[in-house]
Structure formats: C-alpha cells, structure tokens
Amino acid sequence: MTADVMIQASDLSKRFGSVRALDKVSFEVKKGEVVGFLGPNGAGKSTTMRILTCFLAPTSGTAKVRGVDVFDDPLEVRRNLGYLPQRAPLYTDMVVRDYLKFVADVRGLDAAAFRKALESIIEVCGLAQALDKDISALSHGFRQRVGLGQALLHNPQILVLDEPTADLDPNEKAEVIRYIKEIGKDRTVLLSTHNLSEVEDACARAIIVSKGKVVADGPLEEIRAKTGSVRYVVTVDEKLGLAGKSAPKVAELRQALDAIKGALRSRELPTDEKVHKVELTGAKDSDLRAEIFQLMVAQGWLMLELRRDAQSLDAVFRDLTRGDEALDRGHALEEDAAGDEDDEQSDEDDEQSDEDEDDEESSDDSDADDEASDETAEKKDA
C-alpha cells in the first residue's frame, strides 16, 4: 500500500445469514480524491461504509484506512476519518453548539482546539444562524449540516458520507454538494449517493457496485464509455404530424425506433412539454441519425430535436446494475417464505393452545362433577 492510498478494501465479503451483501469487493481511494460510490438499494454500499468506519466486521477480506486495519486499531482509524451516515447521529434535545462541544469532548479536543474547529465549521457548513438553536427546531437540511459539522470537527483527512443529501429539497441538496466540493479541495472523500448528477458535479471518479460486486471503477468518462454504446435523444411533437398525418403515440414511436438496424433499446424520457422525448441507445461506432431522420419523414412525424452524444452516466448505471431488481425480488420472496413459515408455526401454536385450553376446560368440568358428587354423598350421609 503506497503512502498516497487513504482507503483500501481488499476482497471484502460480508454475509448476513444466507444473503451475501458483499462479494470480494476491492478498491483504493487516493489522497485528494472525491470518489462517488454508487449502486442500487441493497448493492452493498452502506455495508462497505460501515466496515470502513469500524461498525461492522467483514466475513472475510481486509479494509485499511491510511494503512491501519479497521479492526486491528479501530480508534486510530476513527481519528483519521469523519463519518456521516444516512441519518445524522444527532441528539435533538441539545443546542447545536452544545452538541458540537459534546462531540469535541468525545474526540478529545481541548477548549482552544474546539474554538478553532468551530470557527471553521461555521464557515464551511453555514451554521452561523443555527448555532444557538435546539436541533429539534432545525429543518432536515440544517440537521444534515450539523451532521457534516460533527464529521469535520476533528479535522479528519478522510470523509465517508453515506447519502448526505437524502430527503433534502433541491436547494438544500445544492448547498450540501457545494460544501462537499469545498471540503474535497484538501481532503479525501468517499461519497455514496443515488443522485448521479451529484456525482457528475462533485466527483471525478466513481465506483459502481452491483449485487455486492464492483462492476465499474474509474474516471467518469471511462465509465460512460464502458458499455460501448452511444445515445440519441429524439423529440417528436405529440399533437402535430407532417402533411396532415397524425402524431404517433409514444409506444408507436419507440417501436419504430427499436426496429432501426443497429438500435439496441429505447426508453421514454420525462418532459414537461407537449412532446414525446425518447432516448435511443445504439452501438458505439454507429451513427443512426440518417435512419432516424428518414423514419420521421416516411411516417410523417414532426421531429423537433435529434441529438447524438455520449452515453449518460444514468444510462450506464442502469446497464451495469441491470438485474439487481430481480435480486431484490428474490430476497423479498425469501423473506415472504420465511414469514409464511412463521405464520404456519404460529397457526400450529394457536391450534395447540386451543387444544390445551379445551383440555383445561374438560379438566375443570371434571373437577366440577367431582365436587357435585361429593356434595350429593354428604347430603345422603346427613
């Protein structure tokens, strides 16, 4: 491991019962890099981050932070990194200033170091107006800022951020990303997010995981070219056609585009305009613009836009992680099956309980008969 490697994962694997969350994940993050860590839900992102931050032990493999194994010396690892989980670890009954002072005490900062760190955090995270407010009174966006502040308090060289913009409104997201870009100028950052535009904005490199494995790792331009395809954006008027011909339905438009030789697949793009906007994917070395134009003329459809460009990161992400939904459904079916077994066992237990209650009632009836018989015998004796 070279001196400029800040994070190193080597063949990390993690199992939860029968589910393999990580399957020999390996990557490195070097000093000064801001790296996007991407993947669908259940792909293993949070599990990897929890291992790197000493919250989970891997089933096999190793993880090191600045050359220190995360479970050989977890305290030293924690001194070197700041961690912001998806939900910031805040005590909502505390004032922001007191909470940060509490974190500083835990980190072992003296009063002078805390004052210096607080000044920096106030500026970087924009906390000046919230410093003397109860955390419970803050918006979710400001709570994330406080969470980011606690991760920065001890001036770590490495930041691990797990979905820092989750549940934020667009303005709050833009602010948090701006903070991360500012922070990343002199730190190493591993940023997990579902928002690919944030990665394109803040990161020069990305790591994509799917089904517990790394499926792409490199600069964004290299990853965009990984699938060996280009995209065409076709916009067609949904109301008007040419020469009195009717406009197509979006399904009809997609079917016609998919039939072009060299086309791989199409999908409808969202739009607020009264148009059909479709993304068509073609082979990397092909140019389908002439065929698309000829199709529009032959069908009498009014084409408003035709653009050919590199494959979007969003499209590459879908290609590389295709099949994860099926995996998630498989896990869901396993859980449902386990739930059904529990229900069956519960029904059996209920039936046994009912039988036991019947036996108890029969026993009670028998006891009552015995008591009545004793009373009759006593009367006869009298």
Fold topology:
Blueprint: E1 5-16, E2 19-30, E3 34-38, H1 45-52, E4 60-65, E5 68-69, H2 74-80, E6 81-84, H3 96-107, H4 111-125, H5 140-152, E7 158-162, H6 170-183, E8 188-192, H7 196-202, E9 205-210, E10 213-219, H8 220-224, E11 229-241, H9 250-258, E12 263-269, E13 275-283, H10 289-299, E14 301-310, H11 313-320, H12 324-381
Parallel strand pairs: 3-8, 3-9, 6-7, 7-8
Antiparallel strand pairs: 1-2, 1-4, 4-5, 9-10, 11-13, 11-14, 12-13
Helix pairs in contact: 4-5
Specify the structural class: alpha/beta
Which range best describes the helical content: under 10%, 10-25%, 25-40%, 40-55%, 55-70% or over 70%? 40-55%
Please give the order of strands in the largest beta sheet: 6-7-8-3-9-10
Order of helices and strands: EEEHEEHEHHHEHEHEEHEHEEHEHH
What would you report as the Rg, rounded to the nearest angstrom?
A: 31 Å
Number of helices: 12
* The CATH architecture of the largest domain: 3-Layer(aba) Sandwich
Average pLDDT:
82
